[in-house]
Amino acid sequence: MTQTVNFTGAVDRDLLRRAKVMAAKTDTSVNALFNAELRYLVETFEAAEASGNHNFRVLVDFSLGRLDGTAALDALGLDGEEDLFLLMSQAHLPMPRLPHAQTRDMAAQLHELPSA
Fold first, then answer.
1. Average pLDDT over residues 96-109
2. 15 SS3 class
3. Alpha-carbon distance 4 to 42, whole Å?
4. In this model, does residue 2 exceed pLDDT 80?
5. Are 96 and 64 in contact (CB under 8 A)?
6. What angle do CA 56, 61, 67 make, to 5 degrees?
7. Burial readout 98-111 (b: 16 or more C-beta within 10 A, e: otherwise)
8. Could you give the dihedral angle defined by the CA atoms of residues 54, 56, 58 and 63, in that order, rounded to the nearest 10 degrees?
9. How many CB atoms lie within 10 A of CB 69?
10. So what's the pLDDT on residue 31?
11. pLDDT (mean) for 62-67
């Protein structure tokens, strides 16, 4: 039997709301969803490390925004972003996202452009 422990963490309010909706629609709990994803991430990382493959670590760093796309491409020896996106998908990792404020500023700049 696996022993469980409680822990405290922080999560984006909207993400938690969406996770609750997903959990309800799939007749499960947010806790079960979290555990499944965390288990996958840890087991994949451990398997990659055990085999001496550091590519998953590079992909995790890219996903967390600690490496930019160019650095990830170089570290993985890839020629194009399409290959990087495919690896991210295969690794079951989310693509990095820009901070909300930066995305909002970019949208504001687009709205300021003259319309045709």
1. 84
2. helix
3. 16
4. no
5. yes
6. 125
7. eeeeeeeeeeeeee
8. -170
9. 14
10. 94
11. 90
Among candidates 40, 91, 38, 35, which has minimal Cα distance to 61? 91
Alpha-carbon gap, residue 99 to 48, rounded angstroms: 29
Lookup: tokens for 14: 């909207």
Give the model confidence (pLDDT) of 10-55 as tens digits. 999 999 999 999 999 999 999 999 999 999 999 999 999 999 999 9
| Cα–Cα dist 38/60, whole Å | 13
CB distance 88 to 62 below 8 Å: yes
The first and second tokens of residue 27, run together, are 């007749």
Residue 52, number of CB atoms within 10 A of its CB: 6
> Do 87 and 59 touch, CB atoms closer than 8 A?
yes
